[in-house]
Amino acid sequence: MMTRKTKRITPLVMVVDDDHAVRLLARETLETSGYAVWDTESGEHALTVFEERSPDLVLLDVMMPGLDGFTVCSAIRKTITGRDTPVLMMTGLDDLDSIDSAYQAGATDFITKPINWHILPYRVSYMLRASGMLEQLRESREGLAHAQSLAHIGSWEWDLSSGDIRCSEEVYNLCCLDGGKFGNPILDPVHHLDRGFVENSIEQAIAQRSPVSFDYRILLSESVERTLHAEVATVLDEAGDTVCLTGTIQDITERKRAEEQIRLLAYYDALTGLPNRRFFMQQLEQALVYANRNDRMLAVLFLDLDRFKLVNDTMGHGVGDRLLQDVADRLLGCVRKNDCLSRAEQDGPVSLVSRLGGDEFTIMLCDIEHFQDVAKVARRILEAVSHPYSLEGQEVFVSTSIGISLYPYDACTASDLIRNADGAMYQAKEQGRNGYQIYDESMNAKALERIILESQLHKALKDEEFIVYYQPQVASDTGTVVGIEALVRWNSKELGMVEPGRFLPLAEEIGLIIQIDQWVMRQACRQLRAWLDAGIPPFTLAVNISGQHFMKNELLEHVTAILDETGIDPGLLELELTEGVLMAHTERTVKTLIALKRMGVRLAIDDFGTGFSSLSYLKRFPLDVLKIDRTFIKDITTDPDDAAITLATIEMAHTLKLEVIAEGVETPEQLEFLVRHRCEHYQGYLFSLPVPPEDVPRFFPRR
Prior knowledge:
Elements: E1 12-16, H1 20-32, E2 36-40, H2 43-53, E3 57-61, H3 69-77, E4 87-91, H4 96-104, E5 109-112, H5 120-151, E6 153-159, E7 165-167, H6 169-175, H7 195-208, E8 212-219, E9 225-236, E10 242-251, H8 253-267, H9 277-294, E11 297-306, H10 308-315, H11 317-334, E12 352-357, E13 360-368, H12 371-386, E14 389-391, E15 394-396, E16 399-407, H13 414-430, E17 436-438, H14 442-462, E18 466-475, E19 481-492, E20 496-498, H15 500-510, H16 513-533, E21 540-545, H17 549-552, H18 555-566, E22 573-578, H19 579-583, H20 587-599, E23 602-608, H21 615-620, E24 625-628, H22 630-633, H23 640-655, E25 659-662, H24 668-676, E26 681-682
């Protein structure tokens, strides 16, 4: 702690002598010279008053009754305020032993009696000036020590000839050392892993006769490390040889942690902890240099989770984030260091998993010997990702599509490799998802086509390029049309008629599906109103709904507005939901569907059997209809497994009091199977393809 004596304008001199005449002469002489004087005849009294008045100088007689001058001086020196106060001892003794005793007691100087009173003011002035300089020096040292403590900087000096090391107090504080217990406070605390480096750096400074600076670690305990920055300079003798080292050490642990945090923010994904796009690109470029120099093969895998947006939209972003974290962990487990693809030399690049953003991941595989190595990892990833995830007490299923590009066959730059792997990934999605695809040059054309399709899709709504076609839903036993499903079609001015399988998944991905769904529902309800007004008997109108509606929380309001606008009976509107909505349901979804059901709107689960629904989901939702997907209907007359699945689905639906509609019925044999097993309704090419609105009236008798 820094302590500082209060400065007086007029210095105070305390005179202590049992001789009254001496005290009077001293007072008169010193006051005439501009000093303030306080005097006493007793050593005991002097010590009592000293702490109260803190004189700037003490004029002290040696021989006094009671406490003598030696004892008083020694006692003054033991006080905090008196450790540097000048003490001028007056003595009539002329023997050397007494003089030595005076200095041993702490006297600053002595003056013999009889005193030359003309010289005394000069002696006092000199001693006060020297005391002031000493005080300034002490304050400077204390200030330096305080500054070093604040900055966590310690200074040291190392005499190479004697081996003596002098350190500031902060050196011991930084290293948690007891100054008397360590032989070398500079080297002894150094972490054993950095010891050789520090010694070599010091030897370099000595040999080169030049300053060096370096960072190193010290070990404060078995588990506590700190990082120090050292500056070392050399002191040379007349011959130019290093005779002394001087240096500073500074604790930079917090700075290092901040730098590491900045590095993490700059180069790592905050959600998953994986390297981000910037770091991946840097590492890939370095790996390409290595691969080119050593004639090695390298692969880039581009991964995108299938239907991740559905999970995010229906279960919330919190669940989506946890899913991404789990996927990241599984990907790291799939790229093992002991794989044949990671046998690179010690100084070569290593395989790397990164998250580019959203649900996109990239993997760099280095030092590949055969493409089979890459395929093996791709298959391992597909299997690992497809296992169920337990999130908020629910099992969630996702898969991934993987695109692969190879150096030097598919591209020679980092950006081209990633772009080509991205194109291959989209090809994998188009081929049914949950698979991998190797890049070929034709994919660039497909990628360009996708960009054009996305651009045109944004214009389609504004330019009213969408149209609605309608496919009848028929009673299996009577052949009577009981409902119509509204199906959106895109008649692009530039691309012509675009199949739904091409643009609907893209609309889901880029966030246009809600606007399209809303437009289709309004258009279909208006058309139903027109048919009813024209005398067609009432029938059910089925409209497909994306799971994204349940995240926006606007579906109920939107349906209500359309029904009010068109005057349609809510019981004639049937909303078809995919299994994904049920699989990733939330309380908000349940509340919305219950509210729709109370309005009278019918609810159907579409494409049943293609996802991962369970009876618990079906029981929880207020459903009216279950639609069997066309993939099971296609081979029900030739494949016993499909037949068994279809039969089990019909029986399960009837147990839950749900109506059943079979999709994709194309042959009389399929229809006969469905009628025999009590499937109430069907739709498909056997009865009719989807038709424009003007062709619908022919399906109904006039009233």
